[in-house]
Design goal:
With 406 residues, this protein is an alpha/beta fold. The chain has 14 helices and 19 strands. Bound molecules: ligand DWN and S-adenosyl-L-homocysteine. Ligand DWN binds next to helix 11 and helix 13.
Amino acid sequence: MNKCLICNSEISPFISYGNMPIANGFLSPEKFQEEYFFEMQLAHCPNCNMVQLIETPDQNMMFNETYAFYSGTSQAMKIHFKNFAEDVKDKYLKESDPLVIEIGSNDGIMLQNFKDWGIRHLGIEPSSNVAAVAVKKGINTIVSFFDESLAEKIIIENGQADAFIAANVMCHIPYLHSIVAGISKLVKKSGIVIFEDPYLGDVIEKTSYDQVYDEHTFLFSVTTINFIFNKYNMEVIDAIPQETHGGSMRYIIGHVGERPVSERALIQIEREKELGLNDPETFVKFKKNCEISKQELKALLIKLKSEGKKVAGYAATSKSTTILNYSDIGSDLIEYICDNTPIKQGKYSPGKHIPIVPIETFKDTYPDYAVLFAYNHAKEIIAKETEFIKQGGKWIMFVPNVHIVE
Ligand code: DWN
Ligand code: SAH
């Protein structure tokens, strides 16, 4: 019997995506034999409504000294995080000598801004290779997993935080109770918690099932975030939709009663009921949509192959690991995937073992079609690859449905 990680109620999966490898586990041929797989199943808790993976690999298998995702690979995300940091500084750092703490700080993409402004900051990042990039830039970073006991240590050494921030990491942590307990102690009574993650509402509406992979233990909604923070005397005071990562939500949270709850947050909670995020039937429909999406993508690639077209992938995202393995797409259908991350180049994609090559390989001889696995960075990528289209190339997109962009 499986139990909800949040409220301990009995849960059962509504979909299995089959055996999945580590999403960011790009590997060399000598490691193919020992590659790790787990059964990736998603469940919706009928009591607290949290959508969650039934099983996740051990965190040390995913986040370690060879973590393949460097946040700074996107210029658009640098701007996004600068705006995020500016918002925190202008609205919430009113006391003297404030302290900002970020978890999942990666290569310092967000904290760089606070460092430049001379604001006290501390990043907590367990993947030592990406943390080293931040440290090199002079960004204060602890190489560790955040949890309640680390929060207690930080209070002793640095004092309480004025702002606790995070992006695309809260949903990665199965022991969310320890995280929220730690946050509630670490953040001053007058302090603020601001984080963003891919939003369940967008995943359901756009059938962006590729947001489901080993690292993403949870798909959050305002309802479920409010539920868990309420247990630690904190509450969502605002919720602001974001365009990043195919549709995210920024949650703004304070200690109960310290700040007014916005109309926007209350409306969003009501909207989630209308969207059916609390209704098991929604997830039955979502499962059907995942199956349709997978069949359409594979059928398109088989058709293009039969016509003698050359198809490549653009951007070896974590999300692509779910698409390729769930849809059973290998190097017979997608010749290679190009990516600007040096640590991924020369390796092979998890599970399906498609070669990962530098962007230059794509530019040298354009394929007829390119599957845009980083559709979340479509604006940035399409703007710099105009020559591909000029030479007759076409993009294949699969969110919100499988289609071709000329
Ligand atoms: O939540 C997570 C998000 C923040 O990042 C992590 N669990 C892991 C990771 O997920 P992802 O790999 O799906 O993220 P992205 O940002 O969609 O990955 C983009 C990939 O595309 C990177 O490998 C870099 C590459 N890229 C590129 O080759 N050229 C990206 C851009 C913008 C480009 O121009
Ligand atoms: N915030 C960045 C990175 C997101 S990727 C961005 O939005 O681009 C998720 C990051 O969280 C990884 O760098 C990973 O190593 C880190 N992480 C995973 N578990 C963590 C934990 N328990 N505490 C702190 N960071 C964690």
